[in-house]
Predict the 3D structure of the following.
Amino acid sequence: MYPKPYIGEARAKTVNKSRLASELSRLEGFKNPVIELEQYVTPPELAADILWTAHLQGDLDGKVVDLGAGTGILGIGAALLGAKVTLVEKDQDALDRAEKNAEGLGVDVELVSGDVEDYEEEFETVLMNPPFSVHSEQLETFLSTASQADAVYTLANSGSKEVQDYLESEGFQVSEVETYTIGLPATYGFHTEETRETEVLLVVARRQ
Ligand code: SAH
């Protein structure tokens, strides 16, 4: 989607997609990533793309939840675009970083320390980059909570249709599936190359 010049709506502090990406590139990532939690940061350009799409679709107008928020890039970016956002994350170190990141960019977000499984508030839109492992319990947990929303923006494993199938079975219509190639940083010690190219899907789904 081509970013239109964005004028009006005084509460949006960020004026276009590339500016958003550049603001998000200033955020700090995980200090000591936990392998079991599949912690890695969504690259700023990809985050900006997701958020800009959501913004243009009007999906940042209601309550937005960032499930498994990590250090906060998705939720904080949504807040920069004027959304009312809650970050849910069970790793307290990551959530502390998210809090500092939000302060650094001067946005207010609600922080919830806990498992996405236990999050029972009402919300309109979910943003998430969940643990990817195919058929993992974690992914199921994220999808189950996400399916309470009206609109879901999620990254997914490009090798599987599990996410689309799940959301469709819950009454969502998948409106967009976009493939991105991203360079994953060598977050974990066992990666030999400095970055590893990998394909991910952005799946956008809306309750019918
Ligand atoms: N949303 C961030 C982080 C993605 S990594 C970003 O896009 O950059 C996935 C995140 O989900 C990690 O921070 C991990 O700690 C968190 N997580 C994994 N399982 C979780 C669970 N059951 N409840 C809450 N958070 C969880």
Notes: The two ends are 23 Å apart (CA to CA).
